[in-house]
Structures are given as C-alpha cells and as structure tokens.
Amino acid sequence: MKKLIYGASVLLAGALAACSPLAVVNAVSPGGAVQATSALRYGPDPRNMLDVYRPAGNAVDAPVVVFFYGGNWVSGKRADYAFVGRALAARGFVVVIPDYRLYPQVRYPDFLVDGAAAVTWTVREIRAHGGDPMKVFLMGHSAGAYNAAMLALDPRWLEQQGMTRSMLRGWIGLAGPYDFLPVQNPVTRPVFSAPDTPPDSQPLAHVSTLAPPALLIAASKDKLVDPARNTGGMAAKLRAYHVPVRELYVDGVSHATLVASLSNSLKGLAPTLDAVETFIRSEGGR
C-alpha cells in the first residue's frame, strides 16, 4: 500500500511540470473536514487580506499556524496555497494564510511590516476562529520562510505592532534563505536594493538566546537555495545560542515539490507534514 501511495504521489508531482503547478496541487488536494473563511482584512492595502482554515466542527483553543508563501517577493497569492491550509487544518490546527505586498509595489522591509500586521491580527482575532492566541507558530516556504524567520528572530517588526516575539511558540522554515549576502539572484537584487542591501536584512544576523524554537526542513539537493549555507547555517547558529532546533533534509524532492509535499495527496513525497505536526504538538520541542 505504501508503494502505491508513493507511486501516485510521484505521478502527481510529475504533473506539476505540465501545467500550473499550484493549481494541480490544489485540484488534487481534497478539502475534507475543513472549514475556510476567505478575504478577511488585516490592513489598509488591497493585498492586506488573509484566509483562515480550521477543522470542521467546534475547534477550541487549537494551535495556530500563520503560513507565508514564497515567490521571491515578486509573486504569489494566498488562494494558491489552499492545500496547505486544508492539510494542516485536517491535522487539527487553525491556519492563517495572508497575502502581502510584493515588489515592485514595495521593497524590503515593507513585506515584513505586512507580515507583522497579519500576525498581530491573528493574535487578536483567532480565538473567534477556534484558535489559541497563546499557541501561534510562524511557517513559510522559500521567501515566505525568510519572512517567518525575520518575524521570529528580529524583534523590530512585531514591536512596531505592539507585540513581542515572546508570544510565538516556534517557527518553521521550508527551504528558507537566511543568509544570502551579497544578493546574486537578478530578480531578488532590486527587492533588497542591492548592492546596498543592509546587513541586518539577514535572519542569521538576529539569532539570540531569545529566539523561539525552530523546525528547519530543506530538500537535500535544493538548486535554488543552498541548504548547507542556509538551513545548516541557521541550525548551527541557533544551537550555538542553545535554542531548540530540529533540521531535516529530504531526498527525492526539489525546492518546489518540498512545499507540495504538505498536500494530503502528495505527502508520500516527503515526511514534511508529519514533521510539522510533531513539532507543533511538542510545543516546538520545548
């Protein structure tokens, strides 16, 4: 049975290259016993909207995941990641997926301002959706993992919203870029005003003993974001400050299909979904 499930996952993953990848993932990811509330506003900009996914029924004080998608800070929309909301809600979590402003509308650090506002909305409003505001985890993939890391590690952004990172139970990074100076990617360079990118734009610069626990997952042969420098470097620095951290390197997936493995239909590709659930259930390994 496991071989059949894995084979189906591989076939579905292959379909990602044939048409719109995220449309395929969403199409093959059933909603199941999950409720969704769409287009909730958390700020004044047209992109300051978010969706909430929750287990069906009367969820009470469930752990909360705020998920930031990737797209090199130039693309992405929350509807494309419905499969993430559905999969995590099916595991008993309340999931918030916000849109945020992108380049060229904004540059660093404005998308972090949006992220902090979305987290603040979550803390203030999530109880009405069955979530526990004292059990909030940040999570992201690629550029979204960068956003999650910066909000968890650099206190400036949540403090601007009247919040502190101490209210976070942990953060989860999938294939995140945490140490990428000098900026080489031609798409990313203007986002971070290269070559004048400020050194404090890097998540690695903000690791301290006050950092929340972390789960770091990467494709072992990621060709877009170097897993040794980024995931490995972040894990090493967190450990140097005695912060609980678990790192997981996955074979057989790419930078893109790593996030696809969160889908209920593609979870056979990698143990990503199980690792995320274990981390959250263990309160970040505290």
What does this structure look like?
The structure is a single chain. The chain contains 10 helices and 8 strands. By secondary structure, it is of the alpha/beta class. It has one domain: 3-Layer(aba) Sandwich (Rossmann fold). Helix 7 links the parallel strand 6 and strand 7. Helix 4 packs across helix 5. The chain is globular and about 50 Å long.
Question: Which descriptors would you attach to this protein?
Answer:
286 residues; globular; alpha/beta; Rossmann fold; eight-stranded mixed β-sheet; disordered N terminus
Radius of gyration from the alpha-carbon trace, in angstroms: 17 Å
CATH hierarchy, class: Alpha Beta
Order of helices and strands: HHEEEHEHEHHEHEHEHH
Question: Which percent range fits the helix content?
Answer: 25-40%
**How many discrete domains?**
1
Largest sheet: 8 strands, mixed
Tell me the fraction of residues in β-strands, as a range. Answer: 15-25%
Task: Classify the oligomer.
Answer: single chain
CATH architecture: 3-Layer(aba) Sandwich
Shape label = globular
| Number of contiguous helices | 10
Low confidence ranges: 1-19
What is the averaged pLDDT score? 92
Report how far apart the termini are: 35 Å
The structure class reads alpha/beta
Reading side by side through the largest sheet, how are the strands ordered?
Answer: 1-2-4-3-5-6-7-8
- CATH H-level homologous superfamily name: Alpha/Beta hydrolase fold, catalytic domain
Helix-strand layout with pairing:
Blueprint lengths: L1 H14 L5 H7 L6 E8 L7 E7 L6 E7 L13 H9 L3 E5 L11 H16 L5 E11 L1 H11 L2 H4 L8 E7 L13 H4 L22 E6 L8 H13 L4 E6 L4 H6 L11 H10 L5
Parallel strand pairs: 3-4, 3-5, 5-6, 6-7, 7-8
Antiparallel strand pairs: 1-2, 2-4
